[in-house]
Design goal:
The chain is of the alpha+beta class. The chain is 15% helix and 32% strand. The chain is built from 2 helices and 10 strands, in the order H-E-E-E-E-E-E-E-H-E-E-E. Strands 1, 2, 5 and 10 form a 4-stranded mixed β-sheet that branches. The chain has a 4-stranded antiparallel β-sheet with strand order 4-3-6-9, with no helix packed on it. It has a two-stranded antiparallel ribbon with strand order 7-8. It is elongated and about 60 Å long. It starts with a helix and ends with a strand.
């Protein structure tokens, strides 16, 4: 009898998809980001729900491709309509302090952090102002494409 219960429990786990990476209720959503027609690597893509829901995010690879995750990377997104933000910046190394400890010893304060240089125009960093939107259906969305320009 124990083996029958164990077998039934294992079958239920397999049928319910215990091996799936998707979060409960989540669907796959992935796409690509182009900046001035070129794949954008290392950008953060943020989906903010219009109305109720949960936000999701992903990071672009060398081909500009991303896969969204809500709780964990690439674990999916809840179906719905979203406003989208795309962010990428780098630290301006030319304005960094060579020896911050020496500055701290001399002045008693740490030097300010060097500023960031926005690779993607700042308007795309705010989902309410970016003008970028996406609809994720109950079947998911695997062909999302965002083409943004620096000018």
């Amino acid at each position: 009898m124990r083996y029958a219960i164990y077998a039934a429990a294992m079958a239920a786990l397999v049928i319910s998809g215990c091996g799936s990476k998707m979060m409960p209720g989540g669907v796959e959503a992935k796409g690509v980001v182009l900046l001035d027609g070129t794949p954008l690597e290392g950008a953060t893509v943020i989906f903010s729900p219009i109305g109720d829901g949960r936000s999701a995010n992903g990071m672009t690879d060398a081909e500009g491709a991303f896969s969204l995750g809500t709780i964990e990377p690439s674990d999916g997104i809840l179906p719905g309509e979203y406003q989208v933000a795309i962010i990428k910046s780098i630290v301006d190394e030319s304005r960094s302090t060579v020896d911050p400890m020496a500055v701290q010893e001399k002045t008693g304060q740490f030097p300010p952090s060097p500023p960031n240089i926005n690779i993607v125009p700042r308007k795309f960093a705010n989902p309410q102002k970016s003008g970028l939107k996406a609809n994720v259906s109950e079947e998911g969305a695997t062909d999302l494409k965002f083409e943004i320009a620096t000018k």
